[in-house]
Amino acid sequence: xxxxxxxxxxxxxxxxxxxxxxxxxxxxxxxxxxxxxxxxxxxxxxxxxxxxxxxxxxxxxxxxxxxxxxxxxxxxxxxxxxxxxxxxxxxxxxxxxxxxxxxxxxxxxxxxxxxxxxxxxxxxxxxxxxxxxxxxxxxxxxxxxxxxxxxxxxxxxxxxxxxxxxxxxxxxxxxxxxxxxxxxxxxxxxxxxxxxxxxxxxxxxxxxxxxxxxxxxxxxxxxxxxxxxxxxxxxxxxxxxxxxxxxxxxxxxxxxxxxxxxxxxxxxxxxxxxxxxxxxxxxxxxxxxxxxx
Length: 293
What we know:
The protein is mainly alpha-helical. It contains 14 helices and two strands.
């Protein structure tokens, strides 16, 4: 569903678009988390194929990991997450970054900072606003002169809350994070990821923090193999669709289903690639983009 087009047409008085939005609203379920103005976010369970979640569960159970895989994954996660944010470090330079701790260029510092942030999450027990502040401190060290909580409404997210509403949004975020509300950890992870990027609490590092806490949430939900997986690699390869899903999930119905679909597809594609490398007996790869259209 192209929310941007429907919202635009509805504002221009297009009755057909208004009808489609009204019909869509009837299919949505409210989530126990509100935006800065108190509107509850929503999603459409019927738009999430049961087969996709079943495939993800089955594939996760087939993945084998080792401590070496985990070490490599942390390095790759740091590299790809930083690349999404514009770091120009190449794969060939990673040896120098991680082994010699070379940090001459900004991109190298971004990669190593992200690595350190993952390590911090591995030993930290708390998940609260202090955790986020510490992540921001680590990620922006030496790479951003204008750091800290944002002080203006200008962000990459068109519906981001005003600065004075950030405390309220942060409370919403952690109540949802720690609450027992959504059965599937993958769907909950997607909502958490979207909401953090929507809040955009810091001047810099928001995308990297969102990706870090997404994987961290899955690990803390009992899916420990994610310590050896690299979701940012798949996001890095589909950056345009990542931003499009974020954009489509900022709509008049507060429906975040487009981003949930994107993140589930990202997990599926990531698992499929990992299992291919492990020579697992896989069925045909499903292009969920075509099904979601």
